[in-house]
Amino acid sequence: MPEGFEVRLPDGVRLHGETTGPVDAEVTAVLVHGWTLDGRSWHRQLAGIGEQLGDRVRLVTYDARGHGRSSCMALRTATLAQLGDDLVAVLDEVAPTGPVVLVGHSMGGMTVMEYAHRHPAHFAARTAGLVFVATTAEGHTHTAYGLSPRIARLIRLAETTGAGVLARCGAWRPPRALLRALRPSLRWLLFGDRCDPTDIRLVTSAVAHASLRSIGGFRASIGTQHRLDTLAELGDVPAAALVGDRDRLTPPPCAESIAQVLPTTELTVCPGAGHMLMMERPDEVTAAIVTVLRQALATRDATSSKRLQRD
Fold first, then answer.
1. Splitting the chain (311 residues) into consecutive groups of 10 residues, what average pLDDT does each group show?
2. Residue-range definition of the domain harbouring residue 197
3. How far apart (Å, rounded) are the C-alpha atoms in residues 224 and 217?
4. How far apart are CA 92 and CA 215, in angstroms?
5. pLDDT at 141
6. Angstrom distances, CA of residue 65 to CA of 83, 211, 270
7. Per-residue model confidence (pLDDT) at position 165
8. How many structural domains is the chain composed of?
9. Which pLDDT value is given to residue 140?
10. Of the four listed, 37, 141, 209, 262, which is most buried by Cβ atoms within 10 Å?
11. What per-residue confidence (pLDDT) applies to 65?
12. Over the chain, what HEC string results?
């Protein structure tokens, strides 16, 4: 059964999270959710990884500041840089030792990149693998919503303007009645050819638990982040990147550029899938995570064997 935890950050924000698996597991996997979502978005991966790797791996999810069951924050901290710092705090609190595999969806992937950029020594000492799910290292460079460039520019202008308004609305949450009315729009924006009704309900529930400040406040940082140079410096860390060919927010060029600068990346393009790959293609996402985890476990086994031989 998952065990809950709480991390209190220096600025007073409380992060809620859950762990599954033994504290002394050989490798810890930390799964970081996307913008306006929460840790529940990984529920299929948590079940699948546990079935395949058992007690060798500890699984950690948490709700980013302003999301899910975590507390709201000051508007000035609604940045990817702050999320990168928060990830360090989670690791130090929940998994202070041993190798970790970092898995990030959308904003979660950008959080992982920010952690690598801002804390390179910490990252290098701890990280044994990376999985990027429907994310980008180039801000909104490739985001065209599947539309013509002119219409995409208009939508982005409306989106960023609206985000600025929402950012000033504080800790209020979106009205559930409004979100129910917006379900068709969320379904179009986030999903590809197929969408299970339970998945769109989960997404709507997650958005309903995100503060308006976080929904609006993180938009500017997400749009301007560029971390390809950071990825190019990561060396031979095992990695995977997955993207749906119907993704309107982080289309295939986003994942392709990650794979180009990080040559260890195994790139998977999922036909007919959109932005919510954990739900739309759970088996493919789980398989990619398990593959990277197995590589991390093999490296740990080899290191332990060499240490025994020296002793």
1. 93 97 96 97 97 96 97 95 98 96 98 98 97 96 74 69 66 79 91 96 94 90 95 96 96 97 97 98 98 94 62 56
2. 3-310
3. 13
4. 27
5. 79
6. 8, 9, 30
7. 62
8. 1
9. 87
10. 37
11. 97
12. CCEEEEEECCCCCEEEEEEECCCCCCEEEEEECCCCCCHHHHHHHHHHHHHHHHHHEEEEEECCCCCCCCCCCCHHHCCHHHHHHHHHHHHHHHCCCCCEEEEEECHHHHHHHHHHHHCHHHHHHHEEEEEEECCCCCCCCCCCCCCCHHHHHHHHHHHHHHHHHHHCCCCCCCCHHHHHHHHHHHHHHHCCCCCCHHHHHHHHHHHHHCCHHHHHHCHHHHHHCCCHHHHHCCCCCCEEEEEECCCCCCCHHHHHHHHHHCCCEEEEEECCCCCCHHHHCHHHHHHHHHHHHHHHHHHHHHHHHHHHHHC
* Contacts of residue 21, Cβ cutoff 8 Å, sequence gap at least 6: 50, 55, 57, 58, 59
Please give the pLDDT value at position 143. Answer: 78
Q: What is the CATH number of the domain that holds 70?
A: 3.40.50.1820
Strand partners, 270: 244
**Rounded CA gap, 173 and 171, in Å?**
6
Maximal CA-CA distance, the chain? 66
Please give the pLDDT value at position 152.
66
Q: What are phi and psi of 59, to 5 degrees?
A: -110, 135
